[in-house]
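So, read this over?
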Amino acid sequence: MSHRNAPLTPTGRLRLARCVVDDGWPLRRAAERFQVSHTTAARWAGRYRRHGEAGMHDRSSRPLRSPRRTPAAVEEQVVRLRREHRIGPLRLAARCGIAASTAHRILVRHHLPALTTLDRATGEPVRRYERQRPGELVHIDVKKLGRIPDGGGHKVLGRAASSPNKDRRNGAGYAYLHTALDDHTRLSYTEDLPDETAATCAGFLTRAVAWFAARGITVERVLTDNAWA
C-alpha cells in the first residue's frame, strides 16, 4: 500500500512510465517532471516494459524463501493445542519449545484471533449484537462515582481524617451518571444527577427520549437491570 505522502501513486507511476516508454521522454526529464529520482523513474519504466499496467502496483515485501521458518510439524502442533485448549502464545511456547513471539506469529499466520475476542466456552468469535434499527431498544443504567473533595481524598488525607463520600458539603458525595444507550447506533445520552431515586430516573428517561427524538430516533423499548431504582 502506498504511503499517503508518497510522490507517486500507482496512477502517477503509470503516467511516468508512459511518458518514458510510449512518448520517448528521457529518464532525467521524466524524473524532474514527476519530482522523483533518476533511479525511481528507471525502475517504473522498466516494470512497465515488462509487466504493463499491472507492474505499477506495490509488490509484497514477503521473501521468496524463508529457510529459518518454523517447521510445519511444530506449526501444526501449535494450532492443534490452541484449538483444543484455547491457550495463549506464552503457554503454547512452553509446550512446544519455541519462543512466545514465534507462537504468536504462527497464530497470526493461521488467522487465529486473540483469546480476548473468543467465547471461552465454545471457542467461537464473540459477535457484537445490535438491533436492526435505531430506537428499537435503548439500554439504561446508572454508574455511581465518588466525588473527590478539594484537597484530595482518603489516599491523601487518610481514611481516618475524613469520609468525603459521606459528607455532601463542598461538592463531596457521589455522582450518579445516568446513561441511555441506543442498541443499534451506540449513540448515548448521559446526565450527572444527584441521586438515583425513582423520580430522578423517570425524569431522566423523559429527557433522554426527547433528546433521541430531536435526532430522529423514536424510542420503542427500554431495557435496564433489576436495580431498585
Notes: The beta strands are 138-146, 174-182, 188-193, 222-223. The chain has a mean pLDDT of 86.
